[in-house]
Amino acid sequence: SMPSEILIKILSYLDAASLLSVGCVNKHFYQLANDNGIWLKIYSSCFQQKRTVRKMKTGQTETGSLGCAALHDRNPGYWKKEYIIKQQAVVKARVMQLVKRVVPYTGLCKHKEAMKASGLSWIIVLKDKHGEEHMLEKGRPAFKDTSVTVLWYSTNWPCLEILSTLKLFGVMPLLPDQSKAHSKGPHRRSLIAEYSLTNLTENSVAVGADKLVQLFSLGPGLLVGLWKEKKEIAFVMASLHYHQLLERSTLGSATVQYALPPNQPVRDDIDPDYGLHGYSLHLDLHGRSCTYLCATFRSLFCRKVDITDGYLRLRVVSLKDSTKHLPLTGTLGLYWETDVFKGTIKNCFMMVVTVLDGTGKPFWCFSAPVYMEPSSEASGLYDCSGPIYTTDYADSEGKVFMEFVYLEETKEYFIVSLVLYISTKKLNNWYGTNY
Asked: CB count, 10 Å around CB of 152?
């Protein structure tokens, strides 16, 4: 019942984020919160601070160079949109400067700094069989060289039996510069991935356990930890590779994922082994809070005779060449925590692979949880003084095989064999070849 003029006067004292929140109350408040007079004042104070407010000859006051025509000749909400667009443009320019700086050994830009500058974060939304959604916002990110691992935990998870899907979103604040002051202010979601939680223990891969929890892998990079006694969710962990993560986290919508642009192959009829040499690998093995290995390998190649069963084989570490065997620092395990408990899943870790082609362009990138198992086959390393373990990973684009030896004397794991298998289908699509 309060007159609109009085409400607009009250709203004029609010900042931009509060105005956007008020506009979500109802249609009447939405119209009031779109008032061009209020938003022109906010716009001018933010982007025209160098211009002074001066008296017009007619006795009217003009803010900066914008007169009354800027109010009456514009549709309601015009200056609100202009303010949001310009705010985001300022942050985008800041982020683009960081994105241009490519790290040579990874072929990726400085994502950690760019993500912090943009205010980007990630949330998960659990949907039950009745259509109700449960959102978890406060994920704990751990940034590495080529990936970020985000952990969510709560004491109030929905019952696992009634859950149907889990959605992973990138979240960008509409007003990045005010995101810290308004943690629950206006945001924009971008769908990154969607996973099915129906019959979780049957339709996913078990990748390790300790006394309290058991881990299940859903697709590349997502882990769900279940309490052993209750068979309910303890935590959710996502490991996200930096390659095109900014695009996937910001350019999609709340319902549709961002479609990655297809690679345009460039043919080379001069080189008979085109696409078979010049590869580089950056390998990062970590347990979320600690790093066990961070190494780069260059000049990887494959001969035509080594292309078998639809895969290009790149041997990175050879069992026979002991000079290239790599030690892992620390005790292998994936660290987890909740409000009450914390622990480490032994022999489980995140494997982050970044393969670059001959031009230094990211060719095959992933981040996924893996588990180290005792080897069932005899190794060719006869002088080893400890047990032998293997780790396998496979997706639609390739496979990774690693072999470890545990040295009892130094209590260390050594990588004694590392082989990449890249799908020839991916190779031919990338280079326009026909292997």
From this structure: 20
| Contact by Cβ (8 Å): 319, 416 | yes
Asked if 206 contacts 215 with a C-beta cutoff of 8 angstroms, the reply is: yes
d(CA 279, CA 106): 12
Q: What share of the chain has pLDDT > 90, as a percent?
A: 50
**Mean pLDDT, all residues of the chain:** 86
Q: Provide the strand spans (E) within 287-347.
A: 291-300, 311-317, 326-328, 333-337, 342-346
User: CB neighbours of 275 closer than 8 A, spacing ≥ 6?
Assistant: 357, 427, 430, 431, 433, 435
pLDDT the model gives residue 71: 63
Q: Kindly tell me if the per-residue pLDDT of 247 is higher than 50.
A: yes
Q: In what order do the strands lie in the sheet with 213-217?
A: 140-143, 147-153, 233-241, 222-227, 213-217, 205-209
Question: Counting beta carbons within 10 angstroms of the beta carbon of residue 170, is it exposed (0 to 12), middle (13 to 18) or buried (19 or more)?
Answer: buried
What average pLDDT does range 287-303 have in this prediction?
93
Confidence of residue 319 (pLDDT cuts 50, 70, 90): confident
Cα(404)–Cα(375) distance, integer angstroms: 9
